[in-house]
Amino acid sequence: MCNFTKLKKLKYLQILAMSLILGLAGCGSDNDANKSPPPAEADTVAPVITITGESAVSVNQNEKYIEQGATATDNVDGTITVVITGDVNTSITGEYLVTYTATDTAGNAATAIRTVTVVSVTLSGTAAAGAAIVGTVTVKGANGKVKSSPIAANGSYAVNVTGLVAPYRLRAQGTVGGRYYKLHSYAAAANVGGTVNITPFSDLIIANTAQQLAENYFQSDSFTELSSAALTAQEGALQAKLQNVFDALGLDAAINLLSSSFKADHSGLDAALDLIRISVNEENNIATITNTLDGSSITDDITQSDDNDAVIEVDSEKVGNAVTDRVAIASLFANFSAAFNDGLPEEDDITGYFATEFLSNDADLALFLTDFLTDPLLIGVSFNSLAITELDSANGSAVVGFNVAYNGHPSFETEQWYVAKDSSLGWQFLGDQQIVDLDFIHYHCNDYDGTDSIEGSCGINTSFSDNDFNNNGTQGMPILSAAISVISPQNGSVKDTFFLGTPINSTEGLIYDENNQAYSGDWRAFGTNLGEIDASKFSVGDKIKYRFYTNNLDLSDASMPTVSGQATAVYSRELNYLPVTTGLYPTAPQTTLDNLNNFTLGNDLVVEWTLADDTQIDEVLVEITDNQDNHVLSIWALPASITDTSITFNAAMFDQELLGNDQFQPELGYQLLIRIYAKGNALPQYYSTDYRASVAAQASFACNYESGWNDSADNGLGAPINPNSFNDFKQVIASCGNTVAITKSEVLGHSWLNEGERVEFYDTGSATQAAPSTGKFIEGSEQIDFIWYIETIGDHTFVVQETNSDLDNDLPTGFWIREAYAVIAVTTGQAGETIYSAVIYAEQSNYSDLDRDTNSDGEIWNNSYIIESLQ
Question: Which residues form the signal peptide (predicted)?
């Protein structure tokens, strides 16, 4: 209850009455709980969003963008959910917005935005020199680190420069139409994501700006930055020298020789690269800029920045005609290639592209078209890096160098064809006009056994064949030999000469090895010994000259071959790059070795590989030789892509190759070879590795059984393909009806002859193992001393020959051979001569144990001998 003071004065009654009313309003009572609370204030405050990380970030192109998210708090609801919207496509450069939204329970919303910029980390442009360069672009950062990438068939390149520090030095290395180029350019940080061309023009601009050879500037370990102003000045100076060319071509005045986009298609800026050739003398630093249409030229001292008065003069009409013809010739190749886009065309669809006098690699038009129109590998064929030289628009002739790509696989071998302009049909193919099928000299390193630690060797490959004697102008006489000379471009001196000849029973011209006095296939190793070629003698610009003859090599002095008569044909090419003399060999993993060792015909064979740096896969060869080392089949396969790491040779491929081959008897055993070929990304040199396995003969020892022999095993000492035991040998003899009981008197004083080999048995001992007699093996100039004796084991009689390094000091130290001859038949020849047919069991120290009776490491073979008395 409230207590009020009694008020006596009446004049205060009204005031007190008002006070009483107010006082009662402020006093509670027992009924207060039933009254409603006053209304709450409305929530009008939005949440607060905090972006995790920076509100503006950058991410490299093609790298993953990682969203860091955001958090939101509200004055009423506390922590609340953030909704994120917006996509970031890192494959496309540009700005992207990521929006963060938070809404509280009262409906108050807040947003925040992160800006994500996708930045390019790629230097890209065109690498060309009148045509796309077939090779590689290398970028070197200011920190000395480098990255490389192959140049595409159209001349474009792209190198991710992540990890490199700007500014960048660039080099394009490779070939154009068979000519080797090493060209340079330059890029600042601002050029990343833009266009940076690598051409003869850029190379000269860099050289003039750095006032040294562009190659030296690229290679230098002490990097000096080139100023933007200096580059701009030298780009402008070169434009001034070439302005007449650009005007004749109608090029935009705003063109920039370093950074304007262009295509290597013989138009626009590429047309200027066709018309202008730039060469730099490394001795005096003088660049020569030549108009290829008329041979006129000006010079430019790259060490002087102000010698810019001279300009190239051109005939605008000739320039226009040349551009028109170059584009037409390029279209000829493009249209021919397009005919193979979706399959093999009909002959009528492509005949018009060829002149009637077409001749290429000894094939006339009819044979060439037959080959081209029946080879499924040519589906999708393309012709790249077209370099058009010796263009004579007035007379309608030119030479075109180009590279062929199969299934997108560019070949490093440059073809050179003539083209001619028909008055009604336009430009047509003439081919290379060569009367032989010539495999022009190229460099190759091969590791003969990828499973051992012995380094491979490097050298050259070259060979030829004459398949059509009627186009030689020799009244049907074949081309049988060639002399190959390496000629200096400076003084015309001959640096080296070696010879190709045609062996007996061969149709192919192969390299003659003066040291071994035999043909060495298409191979000549680098070295300074007789029979080798000295790699140090090669220089860029050397002329490799082939002279072909109808006479075969004169080998009367086997260490000094000669050839006589007039050369029927002479072909030359310029050497555009130097060889690499150490191998960058591909390797096969254990899975491939297992596949090889477990292979049998009727099954697939999967081959995998790992490549060395700066190389790409080229092709894979699988070869089978029989148990006598005779060639049975070769299957070449191109991977579908240069990024592939395996290829499958299916069983049907082997079956197809063996069709009609009734002489091959796989049950007698055979040898399988895998050779994996790689090639350099920049230099067109080949690297290959061999892997071999022997497929054992089936367990049947018929009278004609042989172990098979591999001449190249054990570094040329040789070894049996399928080693056998002496017990196996006795089973073979039993299949033959056992041995003839040859006696000492029937052997001594006689010679056994077989195809140039003579085995002489002398009467110098008892012909027993305890007191053996002596003899001599003779083949040409080779003579080996041995001992011999008669040995009887059960019902078998053997003539045993043994030799070692103690008996004949021409043999390698510790080397020995033991051969047991089982004569299984004695017959009489047509001339009355006695003939022994024999089965032989041979053991040799590099593959055999001395214990003949317990080991299975010998070779079984058979032979026939004419028996003569010693004179």
Answer: 1-27
- Alpha helices by DSSP H, 7-145: 13-25
User: What are the distances in angstroms from CA 866 to CA 516, 741, 754, 762, 829?
Assistant: 28, 18, 7, 17, 8
> What is the reported pLDDT for 707?
87
Mean pLDDT by 10 residues, the chain (871 residues): 36 40 44 60 92 93 91 94 95 93 95 93 93 92 92 92 93 88 94 94 97 95 93 95 94 92 92 94 92 92 85 93 95 96 93 96 94 89 91 95 82 89 96 96 94 92 95 93 95 96 93 94 96 93 95 95 96 89 94 94 94 92 91 92 92 88 85 95 88 83 87 82 89 91 93 92 93 94 94 92 93 92 94 94 87 84 93 72
pTM of the predicted model, to two decimals?
A: 0.68
For the stretch 196-216, pLDDT in tens is: 999 999 999 999 999 999 999
Q: Which amino acid is at 91?
A: S
SS3 state of residue 10: helix
- pLDDT at position 871: 72
- Three-state secondary-structure class, residue 649: strand
- Tell whether domain 48-119 is in CATH 2.60.40.10: yes
Rounded to whole angstroms, the Cα distance separating 304 from 208 reads 7
> Beta strands 48-51 and 70-74: pairing type?
antiparallel
Q: Please state, in angstroms and rounded to a whole number, the distance separating the CA atoms of residues 57 and 674.
A: 52
CATH 2.60.40 fits 590-695, yes or no: yes
Task: State both tokens at 637.
Answer: 């396969």
DSSP-derived letter for residue 268 is: T
Distance CA 274, CA 249 (A): 11
> Which run of H or E residues covers position 747?
helix 744-747
Displacement of CA 292 from its chain's centroid (Å)? 32
Q: Reduce the DSSP state of residue 310 to 3 states and report it.
A: coil
| Residue of 218, 309, 204 lying closest to 258 (CA atoms) | 204
Is the separation of the CB atoms in 463 and 500 below 8 Å?
A: yes
CB atoms within 10 A of CB 266: 23
Highest CATH level, class, for 437-574: mainly beta
Amino acid occupying residue 148: S
pLDDT value, residue 761: 96
Distance CA 801, CA 806 (A): 15
pLDDT value of residue 4 = 34
Q: Structurally, what CATH architecture does the domain formed by 318-431 represent?
A: Roll (3.10)
Angle at 191 between CA 190 and CA 195, to 5 degrees: 155
Question: What is the phi-psi region of residue 186: left when phi exceeds 0, alpha when psi lies from -120 to 50, beta otherwise?
Answer: beta
pLDDT at position 38 is: 66
Q: 494-501 and 719-720 as β-strands: parallel, antiparallel, unpaired? A: unpaired
Question: According to the model, what pLDDT value does residue 409 have?
Answer: 74
Res 468: pLDDT? 94
Asked if residues 285 and 301 have their Cβ atoms less than 8 Å apart, the reply is yes
Q: Are the CB atoms for 610 and 589 separated by under 8 Å?
A: yes
Question: Which residues are CB-neighbours of 650 under 8 A, at least 6 positions away?
Answer: 604
Surface-to-core class of residue 374, CB atoms within 10 Å of its CB (0-12 exposed, 13-18 middle, 19+ buried)? exposed
Residue 465, strand partner residues: 437, 508
- Provide the residue ranges of all domains of the chain, joining segments of one domain with +: 48-119, 122-314, 318-431, 437-574, 590-695, 714-869
Nearest to 215 by CA among 245, 240, 184: 184
3-state secondary structure 563-614: CCCCCCEEEEEECCCCCCCCCCCCECCHHHHHHHHCCCCCCCEEEECECCCC
What pLDDT is stored for residue 749 in this prediction?
94
pLDDT of 34 reads 56
Q: Using CA atoms, how far apart are residues 726 and 758, in angstroms rounded to an integer? A: 25
Q: How far apart are the C-alpha atoms of 466 and 439, rounded to whole Å?
A: 12
Rg of the Cα trace of the chain?
42
714-869: which CATH architecture?
Answer: Beta Barrel (2.40)
